[in-house]
Amino acid sequence: MRYLLLIANDESALAAMSPQEGQEMMAGYAAFGEEMTARGVLQDGNRLRPTTDATTVQVRNGEVLTADGPFAETKEQIGGYYVVECQDLDEAIEVASKLPHAANGTIEVRPIWEM
Amino acid sequence: MDGVEAAVARAFREEWGRVLATLIRTTGDWDLAEESVQDAFARALERWPADGVPRNPGAWLTTTARNRAVDRLRRDAVGAAKAEEAAMTAPVGDAAEDGDDGDGDGGDPRGDPSGIGDDRLRLIFTCCHPALALDARVALTLRTLCGLTTPEIARAFLVPEATMAQRLVRAKRKIRHAAIPYRVPPAHLLPERTASVLAVVYLLFNEGYAATAGADLVRTGLCAEAIRLARTLAQLMPDEPEALGLLALVLLHDARRATRVDGAGDLIPLADQDRSRWDRAGIDEGVAVLDAALRRGEPGPYQVQAAVAACHATAPDAAATDWAEIAQLYRQLARFVPSAVVELNRAVAVAMADGPGAGLALVERLEASGALAGYHLLPATRADLLRRLDRRPEAADAYRQALALAATDAERRYLGRRLEEMALEPSAPSPSSVHNSGRS
């Protein structure tokens, strides 16, 4: 069973981090990646550039409409994601709870709709 | 109702949850399982009058439902492979085919590594998975474990039938799509998940308990369903003293149910209830279950609340209530579930044990904390304590504050009467009417 773990956090808080805090966070993700790779859980994952670099795209009446920014203005933004292969939701929850941002952000666990 | 119909009705009450739980495990498909179990009961109504009631109705129903499931899958081309599988998966230790299963109670080790054998336990833990919304957990538990129909559940929770149907469909879909496991959680998850299961059962009980006399029978019937579930849980989790604690708690509350409301639907304070109408057998059973739980030496919030209920239920009259013990129990409860409402109850008990002044000091500390701002029982409690201290103008003020916050007519009528008394007569002691353990 594959799940997408969406990591949402306040990116302004992220930008305000001290270099040391930033290093600790990266170390936390490195440890997570190592553990989950060793367990055979991790399939894919990336950090995303902040929403200030986001572009939304829509096509209406054949016209491509682009706009600066994310599709929703929210307090927390998607800052990264992982694709994990888990036994069931309990394992996915356990994996998600080990993400460094679970402690101060929010992880959304979404089952992947296999085609 | 003739004998066979009665036997089917009894089998429905006793076996529905167990048979469905097994079918969900063997088919892995909640809807298919539900339809097949319904078919099996319909078949029982057809066959039993001619063939006689089987020696083991549960085993007969399980076998019949499983055959129905296989039939249904065979009719469905894509289901053919699944049918093979379902037919092959004669579940470990389940000898239903030769009509020799269905005891299932306690200690039946159906190859479950956790040592907890009954499929109903898998079912209730899955229904009460914290990834499901609370209202969905409750609805799913009633539908699957208790066998209530969707319209009945809708009526019990005062929502439109379509809303309830949608809620159940969504919950079952999420279980499938998000792969919520059908199992009793492993040891490291068990305490948290058990708490979720017990909370659902207690919520069910409280829904029924809050329904007044004359309310829809389905609603008041929730108490009986909750007690049945609590019994099942206590039986299936004999090593979990909190399951026993919950059973004791609901039994003790339920024993006083008949006397809590007067003819006008107003709540009767505990002190004024007619104790001769309390259900003695229920109280005795509740106390015995509580004693068995406490002997384990692992107290928890349900056991402590049951102990409070036992103090009230076993006092021969209101004056004989052991308030010092109750105050002590609330102190213990606050350690398990730190909450301002628990603290308020403790203040009431302290006032009864050590005098209104001692209780008032605690109430004022609570007020200063601001934790219960807007909760009418806070000024109502202060008002009653001030009245007992004969500080009538202050008491009247507090009653007015409580009146402004009270949510129900019955509460407003009660507070209004008290407020009038403050203007009329010298205060008469009617102390324990302020006791608001949440259960009058």
Indicate the topology:
The complex is a heterodimer of chains A (115) and B (440).
Chain A: E1 2-9, H1 11-15, H2 19-38, E2 42-47, E3 55-60, E4 63-68, E5 77-85, H3 89-97, E6 106-111
Antiparallel strand pairs in A: 1-5, 1-6, 2-5, 3-4
Chain B: H1 3-27, H2 30-51, H3 57-75, H4 80-88, H5 119-127, H6 134-144, H7 150-156, H8 161-177, H9 190-210, H10 217-236, H11 241-254, H12 280-294, H13 301-314, H14 323-336, H15 340-354, H16 356-369, H17 377-388, H18 392-405, H19 409-424
Helix pairs in contact in B: 1-2, 1-3, 1-5, 2-3, 3-4, 6-8, 6-9, 7-8, 7-10, 9-10, 9-11, 10-11, 11-12, 11-13, 12-13, 13-14, 14-15, 15-16, 16-17, 17-18, 18-19
Explain what the structure shows.
Chain A is of the alpha+beta class. Chain A contains three helices and six strands; from the N terminus they run E-H-H-E-E-E-E-H-E. In chain A, 30% of the residues lie in helices and 36% in strands. Chain A has a four-stranded antiparallel sheet. In chain A, a hairpin with a 2-residue loop joins strand 3 and strand 4 (63-68). The longest helix of chain A is centred in the N-terminal third of the chain and has 20 residues, at 19-38. The two termini of chain A are 12 Å apart. The model of chain A has no long low-confidence stretch (mean pLDDT 95). Chain B is mainly α. Chain B contains 19 helices and no strands.
